[in-house]
Amino acid sequence: MLRLDDLSFGYGRTIIGGGLTLDLARGETLALLGPNGSGKTTLFKTVLGLLPALAGRVLVEGADSAGWSPGQRARIFGYVPQSSPGFFPFSVAEVVLMGRTARLGPFAAPAAQDRAVAAAMLERLGIAHLAARDFPRISGGERQLVLIARALAQEPAILVLDEPTASLDFGNQRLILDTVRRLSGQGLSIVLSTHHPDEAFAVADKAALLRAGALLAAGPVPATLTEANLSALYGVPVALHRVGGKVLCV
Ligand SMILES: Nc1ncnc2c1ncn2[C@@H]1O[C@H](COP(=O)(O)OP(=O)(O)OP(=O)(O)O)[C@@H](O)[C@H]1O
């Protein structure tokens, strides 16, 4: 579905990272981990086409995405950026409907079909009851679900989530992770960044460890999220404990 082929990324002439080769199949979830400033968001923006690749390629089902229009990209990639306060002065239903913009022609207004898709995405995420609520007045966890619904309203093949659980309480973190798991089970490919290896163990099939813009390790979670790799990534001793079928990172 998605292949990063020897990709370099950065801002203008400033290279933040390079030499990345990664693969993501349909329905797979990839967790990207790395210290602050290691280049996770810059990499995401490059994959999404918000920044041009400085070298290498972003391939979607074998096709190089370099020349794609924003509309073409929006039909492949749904993006939920790092959490932001509830600044949209709109209802939840309107925020989700905005996700249909990429599917509309120039100057076209949303049609009944677009409203139906938006409503279906609210249902899919279990938040249909919030439709009429003011987006700025719902909880942080609910807002994150609404933003995921908005990205899904684009009907993308790949969902990119930048630290989707940051600033959420424990229960809402769980809610978002369960949602990620469910969506990948429905065939969506998902790339997410996180500062919590536990989360990668909980939801991801693959992990990529980014240190100073370079891949320290990448591959299936059990082989990649090892004590040695995580200790090297974060520069502190990391121990993994298995408790009730889950892996906890200490
Ligand atoms: N617009 C920009 N121009 C130049 N450099 C930038 C720009 N935005 C970010 N950087 C730099 O790029 C590097 C990587 O930043 P990035 O935000 O991609 O890291 P990150 O891994 O997502 O960090 P965090 O975990 O803290 O969110 C940092 O050194 C940052 O200062």
Structural notes for this entry:
Residues 2-237 form the ABC transporter domain. It comes from Oceanibaculum pacificum. Helices cover 34% and strands 27% of the residues. By secondary structure, it is α/β, with parallel strands linked by helices. Strand 7 (158-161), helix 6 (170-185) and strand 8 form a beta-alpha-beta unit. The longest helix has 16 residues, at 170-185. Adenosine-5'-triphosphate binds at residues 11, 14, 16, 34, 36-42. Adenosine-5'-triphosphate binds next to strand 2 and helix 1.
- CATH architecture, please? 3-Layer(aba) Sandwich
Number of helices: 9
Please tell me what the overall shape is. Answer: globular
The CA-CA distance between the termini, in Å, is 34 Å
What binds here, in terms of ligands, is:
adenosine-5'-triphosphate
CATH class: Alpha Beta
The fraction of residues in strands falls at: 25-35%
Rg from Cα: 18 Å
Oligomerization state: single chain
Mean pLDDT: 92
Uncertain spans: none
**Mind summarizing the main beta sheet?**
6 strands, mixed
